[in-house]
Amino acid sequence: MFHGGIWSKLQNFYKWYVLGLVSVGYILGELGHYLIGTTSKVTAEDLHYGDKSCMLNATHLTLSQLPVVCEKVNSSDMCETLTLNGSRYCEWGYNGLGIDYQVLAGPAFMAVFTVVGVMLGVAADRFNRSRILSVCTLIFVIAILLMGTVKEYWHLVILRMVMAAGESGCNPLATGLLTDLFPEHQRALVLSIFNWGIYGGYGIAFPVGRYIPDLDAWGLSWRVCYYGAGIIGLVIAALTFLTLREPARTTIGEEGAGNAKAGDSALESGKKMPQVTIWHVIAQPRIILLCLAASIRHCGGMTFAYNADLYYRDYFPDVDLGWWLFAVTVGIGSIGVVVGGVVSDKFVSKMGVRSRVLVLALSQLIATLPAFGSVIFGPLWAMITLAISYFFAEMWFGIVFAILVEIVPLSVRSTTVGVFLFVMNNVGGNLPILVDPVSKAIGYREAIMIFYAGFYGISSIMFFLTMFLMDGPVEKAEAPDNKPSGLDNRAFSHDELRNGRTNENIRL
What we know:
508 residues; mainly alpha; two-stranded antiparallel sheet; 21 helices; 6 strands
């Protein structure tokens, strides 16, 4: 009675516990990823890397009070002679930018992240995902912790690469686990909550990276940020290893419905699908278009992530928007994530997987105009329009992966997620580098408008076109016999084995 009563209730809470555990782990990983952007100035001053410039060192002054703006002075000698009422208000030092910073923030992380992510996605389809995720969590947590101890620039580069290797497994591994734990009517919401970790970690990096180094606790300055994240991460890594177990792998979405029709229990178990390869999956036009649309949308998000702090500091240097950016990215973004998942899950049973794509297209279209406003307006209205844009914009990430796992077969699910992330991160993560040459040609604000708000609009059009390549409403199986319900598998239906070869009937 004890086992059947209390244990069954605990089982219902376990999947939500897993969601919370892997989500917190992902937030910590992304916090470690983006901390370098918000702590770069003090880190550069300590480790001596990057460019030097003349900077304002008097926080009580506004630009209108200065006889000469510090940033317009290109000489250290001239910088040190600038005074107001007999007091120097500028200093010459490391500004946290330059090619050293760009390598540290981008290529050093992204090159390892994308390549190892694909390899871990392949491993996840063959080995115990919970154990691999535990090891990955421990790796990136230790790397974050060790970043607080570095004495040289190249130490930081190596540890960024190690952290990227560990964090690269979080998304494909956790996506597979959560997909098997939660039913279809909760899937987009669950994956939205998990993938919000990207923006949660980024949003938390604003107050952590801006204000904690100024406290100079124990004389450690910026290092406290990494020590704190690392210590919390060790607890999460321990819980992941001790409490996370491998769930039964189940077919879902189109594949699940197709198997119900065919009555092929071997396919449903995920142990006999040798005829479907990763190449069959990623060659579909709908997968390609979905990936390209997601890459464009990711570019818009990463453009904002890489440039938000710099942009608002540059255009509104006398206004501290750190807490505003935190509130918008974490608070408003989290509401958008939940709403997007609920709306998507609400309509999927009526319209099929294409309903999720419709939610994607509409949400990004609505987010586009206020995104332009967040760049055009002054501080107050910039934050208001940014909040409106963020509410709709952040619906996208979890829904994309809910779509993806529902239109690919079980045997290559994690591999597909890994390849999808590889393309999305390489295209969307590297395109923002074009902001620099474009800004020099037409202006910084105009470049941000194109690659941030403009790419939101382009992605909405591409998502809308992708919708027409997706299947319609679910066709319910007549006799499910305890098999998972899912969408119609018209993308992967398999004929009988003839002459030692399998004829695949793929209808796009």
